[in-house]
Design a protein that fits this description.
This protein is globular. The chain has helices at about 20-35, 70-75, 85-90, 110, 130-140, 150-155, 170-180, 185-190, 200-205, 210-220, 250-255, 260-270, 295, 315-320, 335-345; strands spanning about 10-15, 40-45, 55-60, 65, 100-105, 125, 145, 240-245, 275-280, 285-290, 325-330, 350-354. By secondary structure, it is an alpha/beta fold. The longest helix is centred in the N-terminal third of the chain and has 15 residues, at about 20-35. It is built from 15 helices and twelve strands. Helix content is about 35%, strand content about 20%.
Length: about 350
């Protein structure tokens, strides 16, 4: 990557393949048909007081439902059966990282680095270029960082770092049924609508996941538990890998992956720059938006699990760079690569695949 790209910082997401916006829209339409209500909000990943993830749909009458068969349906199909054929054939995953930085959930963090583990999530963070490392050093005051390694991140709990996306044996049948009969029928045909988890099950997860076996895992875990001083990290062979989470409990509670995006966006806004990220619009369509304030950046926090509509984003990024504004662009690896090709020889930004 040319070091001339001093103004464009890119961050790409650790990507297992992303369904199209129409795929998520089909799920929302099904929710509305089931309930007779208009969906005004959907939270893929929320946190209960026990640290459990619960999916929530919010309706226009002020009611919501959480952790039901309906609200869990999208999670059960998005990364197995909602992937487009282009995502299954895509090389932008763990093998090709086009961003200066890459980030995603650090699954298996309890075993790799128990000292930084957190119920609200931790990010596995890759600094892929010297430019990305320098930007990360600027944002590091907001973060707890632990040195890690690709061999620790790429574990059975993090399949997107072990192999490209793979279609399940039910993938083709699901898509045929989706086109013919709709989202709900497609889920039923492949058995994706399971029973709601009971309170008893939740209590079992909370109170019975510890014990002697868990203590043994913590003792035998590999890695550092103390945060590192990034100023001492020298430029060397990339990628450099870290476990990372935001220092603020409030930020992590609003985020996924430990609040890494917010830390990067905060630093870029503080430098007088512009941030581009994915947010839901009023119609629950995932779209890239341009942010000049932290309040605007907050719309981009949290997982979407849907490809965003880029619209005129590349043209706006190019205009910002041409005017001398530094830019942080976050998106899927294929989106980051598109921005790189279109704007990469201009100064002013960092690209992050996330």
């Amino acid at each position: 990557m040319s070091d001339k790209v001093n103004g464009l910082i890119t961050c790409d997401l650790v990507c297992l393949g992303v369904p199209s916006p129409k795929g998520f829209r089909s799920y929302v339409d099904w929710l509305e048909a089931c309930t007779g209500k208009h969906v005004v909000g959907y939270r893929h990943r929320g946190h209960t007081p026990w640290g459990l993830y619960e999916e929530r749909a919010v309706y226009d009458d002020g009611t919501f439902e959480e952790a039901t068969v309906r609200t869990r349906a999208w999670k059960r199909v998005w990364n197995k059966m909602m992937l487009r054929p282009s995502c299954l054939a895509c090389s932008y995953h763990s093998i090709i990282r086009p961003g200066d930085l890459s980030m995603g959930d650090y699954w298996g963090i309890e075993r790799a680095h128990p000292g930084i583990a957190d119920d609200t999530g931790v990010s596995c963070l890759f600094a892929n270029t010297a430019h990305g490392l320098r930007f990360l050093k600027g944002a590091a005051h907001s973060l707890n960082l632990v040195a890690s390694a690709p061999s620790l991140c790429a574990n059975p709990e993090q399949p997107m770092l072990l192999h490209p996306p793979r279609a399940s044996r039910l993938h083709d049948g699901f898509w045929e049924s989706l086109v013919r009969d709709g989202f709900g029928a497609a889920c039923k045909n492949v058995g994706a609508l399971g029973a709601k988890r009971s309170l008893k099950d939740a209590a079992h997860l909370v109170f019975h996941t510890g014990g002697k076996g868990a203590e043994r895992d913590r003792r035998e875990s590999i890695g550092m538990d103390a945060s590192i001083d990034l100023d001492r990290v020298q430029e060397e062979e990339f990628p450099l890998v870290f476990a990372a989470k935001h220092r603020s409990d409030e930020v992590r509670a609003k985020s996924s992956s430990g609040g890494m995006f917010y830390a990067l966006a905060d630093y870029m806004i503080g430098q007088g720059g512009v941030v581009y990220g994915c947010a839901f619009d009023d119609g629950l369509e995932a779209r890239h938006i341009r942010c000049e304030t932290l309040e605007e950046c907050e719309r981009c926090m949290g997982s979407k699990y849907s490809q965003s509509d880029m619209g005129s984003t590349i043209a706006m990024v190019s205009a910002d760079l041409s005017s001398g504004r530094p830019v942080l662009f976050t998106g899927t690896p294929c989106q980051v690569d598109a921005v790189r090709h279109a704007c990469g020889e201009m100064g002013g930004g960092v690209a992050v695949d996330c």
